[in-house]
Amino acid sequence: MAVWYDNAVFYHMYPLGMTGAPFENKEEGIVHRFEELKKWLPHVRALGCDAIYIGPLFESTTHGYDTRDYKTVDRRLGDNEDLKEFVRQAHELGMRIVVDGVFNHTGREFFAFRDIQQNRENSRYCGWYKGINFGWNNPYNDGFGYEAWRNCFELVNLNLQNREVKDYLFDVIRFWIHEFDIDGIRLDCADCLDFDFMKEMRWMTGNEKKDFWLMGEVIHGDYARWANAEVLHSVTNYELHKGLFSGHNDHNYFEIAHTIRRQFDENGGIYRGRVLYSFVDNHDVDRIASKLNDKRHLKPVYTLLYTLPGNPSVYYGSEWGVEGTKANGGDPALRPQIVLAEMEKHAPYPELPSYLAFLGRCRREHPVIGEGRYRELLLTTRQFAYARIGDQESVLVLANNDENEAYLSVPLPTGASQIINLETGEMVSQENGRVNRTLPAGGCELLLLKP
């Protein structure tokens, strides 16, 4: 049975950055920045997005991933009622809400860690964290050691094999579902999480909400270990992310095609039947507009993102070609404040949002783009054509990463009585079972094949 996340387009919000909240949480009272976030909802829906991944949202010390309190919305953003209203309005517009679940670690101001600081060996929470050792010390000079995520000692690793910890976090998730009516969780550092913990979470959330979605941040490894019927529904496809920009910069469509062939080819792709989470940028990696050597490639990059297998995700601001690199300001440079009304007036690439809206509309009106079988049809270093094939209709995708126009002669994957250019509406002719098209530099086309 089809569920909402099988063919969804996501919009990714990093709320602390996009609202211009202070980096350190020293607010005396609550500042209702959700008022700004709500203004984005009609824009996101107009882009053709079906779901919003937003986070981190809960009370933290700095960037949001050093949690203080899992049940209280960060005062820099607002209060619990603000989040409830945000979710309600998104649902009213037909969009689902997925939040960050930061369960690998907590911040040092979390109540269990503070109790250890206070009561040392006598704390009942010593077993909640990994590697607590009162014979050691740490960079904060607490007089004991502990395991930290990647040696970032502001992030203290939780012991997810501890029954109390699991029960506490599952209680948090139930609270989120019942209090805020969220539709899914993106698991931060899923490649560090205990598998039994994730399996139990999958069972529990499915009982709480039948179509609840779990997606994990996984950078390296065999994605099938996480994305399967027992653990998570999906994971981040970092392998494809890398190919989407370097395949254009290097004029090497072979890199992208090889990745997809390995992952999703209808005859042997190792992740066939799984829907991974696709992206070209996010809050941890440089913006796509900064990564591309030729900005004309924004169009084919997004075309491939939306039409290759996977759930596409657009990171806030990148629909206008906003730039940002870690080399020019670290993580905050990837997470800037954006005032929606100002950006709409002064966008770097003002034509890009309407093209993304077109791609979103195509996926909604022709679900075969997200669900159909993938078949490669033509491949050179600079030209690429493939089809998403269904029982009733198919869609043919053509892309050109050359600096010059290119002629493509592409075999049709199925018989077609009609071929329609989805962007222009024009009828396209065929000749001996092939379509012959000339694409401009950085050009692409989506052709609907009707039987």
Provide an overview of this structure:
The structure is a single chain. This protein has 451 residues and is α/β, with parallel strands linked by helices. It has 2 domains: 4-129 and 139-368, TIM Barrel, CATH 3.20.20; 371-450, Immunoglobulin-like, CATH 2.60.40. The protein is built from 13 helices and 20 strands. The chain has helices at residues 15-18, 34-46, 80-92, 111-119, 163-180, 195-208, 238-249, 253-264, 288-291, 298-307, 340-345, 352-365, 368-371; strands spanning 10-13, 51-54, 58-60, 67-73, 96-101, 105-107, 148-149, 152-157, 184-187, 213-216, 234-235, 277-279, 311-315, 373-379, 383-389, 394-400, 406-411, 418-421, 434-439, 444-450. It has an 8-stranded parallel sheet with strand order 11-10-9-5-2-1-13-12. Strands 14-15-16-20-18 form a 5-stranded antiparallel sheet. α2 (34-46) packs parallel to α3, α5 (163-180) runs parallel beside α6 and α10 (298-307) runs parallel beside α12. The two termini are 25 Å apart.
